[in-house]
Every structure is written in C-alpha cells, then in structure tokens.
Write a structure and sequence with these properties.
With about 230 residues, the chain is mostly helical. It is built from eight helices and no strands.
C-alpha cells in the first residue's frame, strides 16, 4: 500500500512538488555516470548525452524561475503571518543562485567535451555535475522540509494550482509525453493515478497509445550503457 499523501480539498497538495523533485534527483545522479560512460572520442554518443544535459539544465532553470516568480513573492507578502517566511525565502534564493553558478560551470565545460569526447574533458564535466548535484540536493531537501509546509498553510489551492500551470507552460508540446513519463517513472501507484487523472482525456489516451513506449524507448537509448530504462 502506498504511503504517499493524498490531496485534500482545503489546502494545496504539495506532494506534487516532491514527485517533481524526484525527477531532478534521478537525472542529476544519472548525468555524471552517462558522461563517464561515453567511450573516449565517441563524439556521436557525446552529442546524445549532451542533448539530454541541455534539456536537464533548461528544465531545472524553468522550474526555479517559476518558483522565483510565483511562490517566493506570495510567501514574502505573508511574512507577517509566517514567522520564518522571509528568512526561508532568502535561503531559497541564495540556494538558487548557488545552483545557477554550478550550472554555469557545467555549461562552460560541456561544449569542449562534446567536441572531443576526451577522457580529461569528461572527468572535468562529470566532476562539475557532481558538485552541481550536491548543491541541488541540499536545496531540494530544504525546500521540502521548510517551504512546502509554509505553502500548505499560507497559499490557497488556486494559487498552488496556478504554480503548476505555469510549470506546465514551460514544457514544449512535443516533449509533453516525455515529461509525463519522467514524472511517472519513480511514482508509486497512487501518485501515478493522481498525475494521470490530472491530465486531460486526450493526454491520457496519447500516453496509453504511444507515450509510454516513446518514453521507454528514449530511456533505453539514453541509458544504453546501463542496460535500458523503465519496463512499464
């Protein structure tokens, strides 16, 4: 039986964010391994991994921009009602800045590696990705521990739903099935049912018709050195 929380009518269902965070945790752990697994000089394979790295960086940037523009201002407005709200927001913003700096290092090192797929460039990029992940995990842990309880108390369901819509707007239409698959990959049955129920009927039909297979194929191609992707 799943132990994941279920949404309630009176407060935001912030467990959605926990599921989203799992995607960034999983992919940030995978990326250094993917880089190191590229054979020396295999620029074709480096291009495949590099494209995934670019999508990861873009997705994380959009995720943090939505938070910067929606959640933090609302919590700041209600700082009088939220004793630790202002300090918590400042902490989140400082962590976002640190993550941005780590991604700047990653994106600075990626082109040289993609051009040559050399071992030294690969190790430098993988090390930068590991340093990025350390900063990211600290932030995700703090956000779940400090921010999500404040959101539940001080944002309305409508405000929280608007955050989710903003996040969805950043996903290119031709990537929607891949984004859904990424969310569902590590979800438990209750979480999977929740996210599929939120999707429009056409989205659910497309997922069952080809989205599942599209995501599995993409994972197999990307994770070929680690023997494929999800089986469902």
């Amino acid at each position: 039986m799943s132990s994941s929380p279920t949404p309630g009518p009176a407060r935001p269902y912030t467990h959605e964010m926990v599921v989203v965070h799992r995607v960034f945790r999983r992919e940030s752990a995978l990326l250094p391994r993917l880089v190191r697994a590229v054979p020396d000089g295999d620029t074709e394979r480096a291009a495949v991994v590099g494209a995934h790295l670019t999508e990861y960086v873009t997705g994380l940037h959009h995720h943090h921009t939505v938070e910067d523009e929606t959640i933090w201002p609302l919590l700041r407005e209600r700082a009088d009602a939220v004793a630790a709200g202002t300090d918590t927001v400042a902490r989140m913003e400082e962590q976002h800045a640190r993550i941005d700096r780590s991604l700047t290092e990653v994106t600075a090192r990626a082109p040289a590696w993609q051009r040559t797929a050399g071992r030294m460039a690969a190790e430098e990029l993988a090390t930068a990705l590991e340093e990025h992940r350390a900063a990211l995990l600290e932030h995700l842990d703090d956000e779940e521990r400090l921010v999500l309880p404040l959101v539940e108390q001080h944002l309305s369901v409508a405000e929280w739903d608007a955050v989710g819509r903003r996040g969805l707007e950043t996903v290119p239409k031709d990537k929607l099935m891949l984004a859904l698959g990424s969310l569902l990959e590590d979800a438990d049955p209750r979480e999977r049912a929740y996210f599929l129920d939120k999707a429009p009927l056409i989205g659910r039909l497309l997922w069952r018709a080809f989205g599942r297979r599209q995501y599995a194929a993409a994972c197999r191609a990307l994770r070929a050195p680690f023997h494929g992707g999800p089986q469902r």
